[in-house]
Amino acid sequence: MSAPAPCRGWGATHAGTKRPSNQDAYLLRSEIGLWAVADGAGGHGGGEIASARVVEELRALPLGLSSGELLARTRDALEEANAALREEARARGPSAMLASTVVALMLRGGHFACLWAGDSRCYLWRGGYLTRLTRDHSMVQELVDAGALTEEGAARHPHANVVTRAVGADDTLNLDKVTGQVMSGDLFVLCSDGVAKDLGDAAIASALIAGGDGQGLADSLIALAMTAGSTDNVTVVVVRCP
User: Fold this and answer.
1) DSSP 8-state assignment for residue 167
2) In a domain, 3, yes or no
3) Disulfide-capable partner of 141 in 9, 36, 136, 170 (CB 3.0 to 4.6 Å)?
4) For residues 85 and 169, is the Cβ–Cβ distance under 8 A?
5) Would you tell me the crossing angle of helices 67-92 and 46-59 to the nearest 10 degrees?
6) CATH code at 49?
7) Domain of 146?
8) How far is residue 242's CA from residue 234's CA, in Å, rounded to a whole number?
9) Cα angle at 44 between 196 and 75, to 5 degrees?
10) Residue 209 within a domain
């Protein structure tokens, strides 16, 4: 498990149909088996600073890490980003907030691991079926879990963008993790909530059924989100394992 799996990733991002700026960021590091999407939150450019800091910390990870080291160092990098964003927010004043969701995928030696905080998602497309690997850390997801709201209603809820975890939101960063085996032909989709909520799981699956690969698939998912009238920033990373 010391060598990266022969998987490749491609990404695309857009500000969306309404936002004046793009506060999303993504990372492609196929050379070490690491990919990520970050969706910033915060006024006066804070969101852009937060997502950029998350990606910057992950981009600084060195080559030559073992599988266990990659997972541990990815977690450390996100915790370092969390501490830096908390310090910057305190310097800006008591009401300042610089935070970003993150979903990070690692692929090594026939296994995957995914770390996340917030409502950016990771999906697995395998054998013609789409599985959501992550569970949103959001107010509406808690309502869905309690049976007070349907998945369809959650996407249209007025508080659909309120997350309960994010890098920079609290002094202690609480990340969730999911792991599993990689099979030949697996395709992973990482995306910000602008894609997940405006398209929905069924539309994402339909796009994957329609085919396409690599950069073309990432671009087509962004185009579909734009056609759906996404008012949020939209970002997609697709990772294909041959």
Assistant:
1) B
2) no
3) 136
4) no
5) 150
6) 3.60.40.10
7) 8-240
8) 26
9) 55
10) yes
Q: The sheet that has 111-117: what strands, in order across it?
A: 24-29, 34-41, 99-108, 111-117, 176-181
Annotate 73-95 with b (16+ C-beta within 10 A) or e (fewer).
Answer: bbbebbebbbebbbebbeeeeee
Per-residue pLDDT at 5: 46
Structure tokens of 176?
């969730």
pTM: 0.93
Q: CB within 8 A of 223, min separation 6: which ones? A: none
Contact status, residue 37 vs residue 102, Cβ threshold 8 Å: yes
The total of structural domains in the chain comes to 1
Give, rounded to a whole angstrom, the gap between the first and last alpha carbons of the chain.
17
90 in any annotated domain: yes
Beta-carbon count within 10 A of 106 CB: 23
Closest listed residue to residue 101, CA positions, set 156, 57, 37, 179: 37
| Burial per residue of 207-240, b for 16 or more beta-carbon CB atoms within 10 angstroms, e otherwise | bbeeeeeeeebbbbbbebbbebebebbbbbbbbb
Domain membership of residue 2 (yes or no) is: no
Where in 42-194 does DSSP place strands (E)?
99-108, 111-117, 121-126, 129-132, 176-181, 187-191
Provide the b/e sequence for 112-144 (b: ≥16 CB within 10 Å): bbbbbbbbbbbbbbbeeebeebbebbbbbbebb
Structure tokens belonging to residue 38: 């970050």
**Alpha carbon separation from 226 to 51, 133, 200 (Å, rounded):** 21, 24, 13
pLDDT tens across 177-232, in order?
999 999 999 999 999 999 998 898 999 999 999 877 789 999 999 999 999 888 88
The number of C-alpha atoms within 13 Å of 75 and in the hemisphere containing its C-beta is 14
In whole angstroms, how far apart are CA 222 and each of 115, 169, 185? 23, 27, 22
